[in-house]
């Protein structure tokens, strides 16, 4: 392949960057009588001017044969995906996955794909999710292979299946979520025929395991254009099956137009949270922004004067968040952190117009704990009013809060606030063994510390004994 046009230049540059990996591995497979091709994402990304350290290869060699070929070549080998035809290899700083030509489909009654091996590169590319991922470079010959027009789709920034979308999504329903995920990551649109098929087949996604759905949703929310991906999920009905809380936010606007569309508000909050990120996507912040108001539909009440209220929607929303993320098999710490942010996202508004007591500041910091910086960002993002005067006033008030937090942090090390008497001292003073009473006493002293600051151990002891006498 001689670099005579921009496409060949890009591919040649890719192969130069991954030398000697491509040359060595291509020759190695050829010497053993097998085909090898660089395929999928790495080819697509280099044509988009993106790069990464992960490389995907495909071959006619069966997985056991792949192991034999690379055993003495790779620095490390893993077989976690071998049941699906994939062998992992580390070579230097590169992470490689070598997958046997294959096709896969779902039995309507099974959550696991059935894998069948193939014999040609073209047939393997036919079972890829989208044409932009169905391009390859044969090695060691460096022949560019694009039987389904992926290059043209890249130019048009469109996601289209190699064959009919109905057949593609029936083979693997997760591809419907991948369409939304790639729209988020790449900023591409989805082909209208694929959108129609996704809408008609959305219920088919329920056959896919929660773990695979979670992985796609997480990549979507952490993409460069999550709004586009989420919009696809909602408009095709896929969200009804994988994230039903989101479409339920599309509440009717009341007759006096005083109630904002909560769904659109949520997308704006997500955009504004993302705008505050430093150092890349913050999955906890993004999920909290997306889910912060999901308690509103359940708590909506019509009040006198044509008003609408959502009392305690943050508490209900936190409970709903925990249930949804648990069902999607998110890690416990992610679930806990996101739910906590949802629970706390209105706390700032409970403190009025800026007349903050030291006690209020301490409690705010204490309750936010390690999530304080994210809570700052979520609270600021949650202001979507078009009233510039109101927005500016809210921003000033929050600026004042952050200033108070910084001042008290210098004086008191807020993040380390503890009662002035520890558990052992409480037991000794009260003459009690460990138990619920000691726990309640600890909480009393912590509240005392929050409300009144440092009092000294003598005063704390006296207040503890006074409290205990009333129990």
Write the layout of secondary structure elements.
Elements (H helix, E strand, L loop, with lengths): L5 H12 L3 H11 L4 E4 L1 H7 L6 E6 L3 H8 L5 E3 L7 E6 L2 E7 L1 E5 L6 E5 L3 H6 L9 E4 L4 E2 L4 H7 L1 E2 L5 H7 L2 H13 L2 E2 L1 H10 L8 H12 L4 H11 L2 H4 L19 H13 L8 H9 L4 H4 L1 E3 L3 E3 L3 H15 L4 H13 L13 H11 L3 H10 L6 H25 L10 H8 L5 H17 L4 H13 L2
Parallel strand pairs: 2-5, 10-11
Antiparallel strand pairs: 1-2, 1-8, 3-4, 4-5, 6-7, 8-9, 12-13
How confident is the prediction overall: mean pLDDT? Answer: 87
Give the percentage of residues in beta strands.
5-15%
Round the Cα radius of gyration to an integer and report it: 28 Å
Overall shape: it is elongated
Helix percentage range: 40-55%
Largest sheet: 7 strands, mixed
- CA(first)-CA(last) distance: 85 Å
The number of strands is 13
Query: Which consecutive residue ranges, at least 5 long each, have pLDDT under 50?
Result: 254-259
Give the count of helical stretches.
23
Structural class comes to alpha+beta
Strand order of the largest sheet: 3-4-5-2-1-8-9
